[in-house]
Amino acid sequence: LPLALTLSNLGSGTRLLGDYAQALQYYEESLAYCREIGERRWTVVALNGIGFTLLDQGDYANAWASLQQALALPQAIQSMPDLLDTLTALGELLAYSGQPIAAGAVLHFVQQQPATLVLAHKRAQHIMAQLALPLPAETITQATALALAQHAWQS
Fold first, then answer.
1. CA end-to-end span of the chain, whole Å?
2. Rounded distance, CA 43 to CA 96, Å?
3. What is the DSSP letter of 78?
4. Comparing C-alpha atoms, which of 44, 49, 29 is closest to residue 119?
5. Closest Cα to residue 106, out of 90, 125, 127?
6. Which of 6, 81, 94, 152 could serve as 99's disulfide partner, Cβ 3.0–4.6 Å?
7. CA distances from 86 to 91, 116, 121, 134, 136 (A)
8. pLDDT 10s digit of each residue in the chain, 155 long?
9. 85 closest CA partner among 61, 58, 51, 57
10. Distances (CA, A) of 38 to 66, 101, 152
11. Closest Cα to residue 81, out of 39, 48, 52?
12. Which pLDDT score is estimated for 148?
């Protein structure tokens, strides 16, 4: 497990420095190792890292593929912070894919959750600020219902 953690952290660092090819390599190595040893939580982290890196590069189709794989795992292992991180990436993907209302609803939901990781919260906040959308009352109602349902799942 320390190898997977190290590789994911290296991926994050190199992604933030803009070396996307190297970041993808680190994340993919971490993913392969996690799958080999059956470590599901760090599999999600690696898939999210790949998704965020591909988003940063504008490769939305491949980002979607990575995030779809990541989406199922957090619920299976009851890791709400990882689910919220994946939802942040999906919200960003929706924003960049011309679906600002859907993006706003997802990102608003992420921001309201106490289990949201600090970096995911900041990223969601940044994207929401770029969108500058007032959320319709219906969207707020739906997101609130979803949040309450997720809270019940977490309890």
1. 27
2. 25
3. T
4. 49
5. 90
6. 94
7. 9, 10, 12, 23, 24
8. 799 999 999 999 999 999 999 999 999 999 999 999 999 999 999 999 999 999 999 999 999 999 999 998 988 899 999 999 999 999 999 999 989 889 989 999 999 999 999 999 999 999 988 888 666 677 777 777 877 776 665 55
9. 51
10. 18, 37, 28
11. 48
12. 79
CA angle 7, 11, 15 (to 5 degrees): 170
Give the tokens for residue 19: 């070396």
pLDDT score recorded for residue 155: 53
Q: In the 8-state DSSP scheme, what is residue 155?
A: -
Structure tokens at 113: 């959750």
Give the tokens for residue 106: 């997802």
Residue type at position 53: T
Report which of 46, 39, 43, 139 is spatially closest to residue 91, judged by C-alpha positions: 139
d(C-alpha 63, C-alpha 53), whole Å: 8
Distance of CA 20 to the CA centre of its chain: 17
Largest CA distance in the chain: 46
